[in-house]
Fold this sequence. Notes:
The chain is an alpha+beta fold. Helices cover 40% and strands 22% of the residues.
Amino acid sequence: MSSRLIDLFEDGELVARIKRRLPYLFQVAELECSRAGKIGMEVGSTREKIITALLMIKYGTTNVETELPITEPEVDVKVHGAPVSIKTITGRRLGGVKLIWTVDAEKAAEFRQIYAPTCDILLIQINWGGTGGLFYIPIEVQGRTHEGLGRDKYVLLPKPGTNPRGVEITREALTALISDPDTKRIDIEWRKVEIGYDPFKKWVELWNED
């Protein structure tokens, strides 16, 4: 594996900063995207920006490409030209990692028949009050897991008659992916702190600028 993302997990100083700062930054993201105590769907985009900013710190802004065409739906960012998908899940149990968002059962079934991993994954497991982590799952790991399990055990289709929110990686496949010896991980303790955060403050300040 030659991906530059390995460097992120071998940088001791940055690893320590991730352990310390990522829970705080994700807590701010939740506060910014909440209304009446409910977290909105837009929190996913905010979390993605937080991880992208981390990549910019490590690799430099000129080496992190964010303006990507819509024809690459699984790719969120490119690092030194290599495509990366940023995914988050919440909770102690693994599961719920989306491959595509679709409400069409026929399209979902077609997707499973043609799907093959296309890029590295950075997966963040958020587990407030417990242990989660940041995982780097190389495309090579995804490829051999997909081949070993077979597409029916790797790709989970939405249940018929439900309100489907997309096609997911199965829990069995996800467990195999993060357990693979070539997957890198940073264990993170997800502790919340008291934050006096006002999501409107920056907008008020920008309105008051000349």
